Amino acid sequence: MTAFDAHIGKGYNKHVFVERAASGASIEIVDYEFDGTELEGCEDRSLLRWRLAPDYFSSSWRLARQPEFVKLGKLMFLPGRVPFRTRPSNPLRSSRNLVCHFQPELEQQIMGDLEYWSEAQLAECQDIRCGRTELTLRRMWQEMMHPGFASELLLDGLLATLVVDISRYFRRAGPIEDDLPKRVSALSKADIQRIIDFIHGARGGCPTASQLAGVCGMNLSSFRNRFKLTTGRSVHSFVEEIQLERAKGLLVNSGMLMKEIAYELGFTHQATFTSSFRRLVGMSPSEYRTRHLN
Fold this sequence. Notes:
By secondary structure, the protein is α+β, with helices and mostly antiparallel strands. It has helices spanning 104-111, 119-124, 131-145, 151-172, 175-178, 189-201, 209-215, 220-231, 235-253, 258-264, 270-281, 285-293; strands at residues 12-22, 25-34, 39-41, 47-53, 59-63, 70-71, 75-78, 84-88, 94-102. It contains twelve helices and nine strands.
């Protein structure tokens, strides 16, 4: 039982939809509904919580060593055996979360000795911004909701990836970050490939520069500068070109309807897709399909 479980009916309600066991952790998809009451507690085990919905949910917390409350982001890490207080700011609003409760051996890999954590590392806990981690969590959520062949093996692999990424993320907040050169450097080939893969996998909206910066584990300003240095182009034009090539391929090589292609590429409305395609290619998607199929 977690500290939050002990408060059911006294500040919030909790409903677990799916719960799975992996090597070194338990993973659950859970809804929380808070009534606005300030809560306090102390988890037995460290946990990682990723809020799936809504995109914005205002709440703040304070760890034992922190002087004041800070706002929580979509992805947060709560160290085990560290007293905390939290203030939900959206009473009676439900949030859906994926939560990983770590066993001691994985907790040790992530945290090391908490006594030696810097204030900067503790501050990183409440709002982790790491695109690679969110991609891993999204795959974990999909596998939890729709398990397939070798599901347990896949979850174990995703959990191992998650532990490594989170461990590296926190260590970046320590002395390692201070030793990094301050000059602008080019993106690596691996970063460019991650960006391309993310764009190709995007659904329900065109990827933003902020999302792509997260994929590379960078802040937005640094990412824009390094992207421009590497490609000589803006992020927007790069994304637009890849989306255009995807559109051409789907028009010629699939039997998808125009509205299906529009959705696949992240357009909310077919008309927006059509006007964007016409602006870039000089003809409508239907005309392009007809010309290349004939």
